[in-house]
Write a structure and sequence with these properties.
Layout: H1 3-19, H2 22-28, H3 33-52, H4 61-83, H5 86-93, H6 96-107, H7 114-133, H8 137-161, H9 168-187, H10 194-218, H11 224-231, H12 233-246, H13 252-288
Length: 289
Amino acid sequence: MNRDRLKAILYIVIAATLLSTGGIIIKFIDLPPMTIAGGRAIFSAAVVWLYVRKPKFTFSKAQVSGALCYSTMITAFVVANKLTTAANAIILQFTAPIWVAILSVWILKERIRWYDIVAIFSVAVGMVLFFLDDVSGGNWVGNMVAIGSGVALAGVTISLRFQKDEKPVETTLLGHIITAVVGIPFLIGLSYTTGDLVGLFVLGTFQVGIAYIFYSLAVKHLTALESILIMFLEPILNPIWVFLIVGERPGPVSMIGGVIVLGTVIARSLLANKMNQIEVNKSVNHQIE
């Protein structure tokens, strides 16, 4: 393994670990969800802007739609963490690849594969188990918001496919700016403890800002599949931190649902990568002939 790939794997592990702290930090900040989302976005926008230095905002349809989806995703994730367990919030968000498969048929006119259909039904079973276990109103709403966060993440992924000369980091930076602007009214008129301010700073600077910088550096030297699979550390570590520190745990049925969802998404990613490689090899062989 060359030095660049080894460094890239380390970077993406750091990114996943930093991102996984979101659930526990959000639980400790005693502020409304929109206030947390807006405050975090101010810090994260500043950090990413300093990294990019001279961002190129084209305001194309793809960039704006991607930024809006990104803003929706990170805001919905904060709201979901306040309404349901951290495990439910992050695992339901990580259903995004399934939503990408569904939306791609409609938006990108791509055909859906047999393994996508199997994955969709399997994930649906997993999500039903989440809702069967969480009978309280707050958890039910939180689960719905978490699913919405996953759909928004799928929207970000699809919008980036339309961007050829634009960089993902600029799309996400615009998303942070939008979130900060929307969140400003929710920041006014509240009293903040030192813990609240430190929490917002850590969320924006490290949990999102620096984490994404590490991620953007890593993906240059890893395949998309390698990046996705390593990033699955996030939904695994996120509820672990929350359980170890505040003792929050999902119910047994939700845990089964989580295993089904994560297992399905990982299996689909592996199979999709294998099938795509087979098609590429067939295309190359056909051209040679």
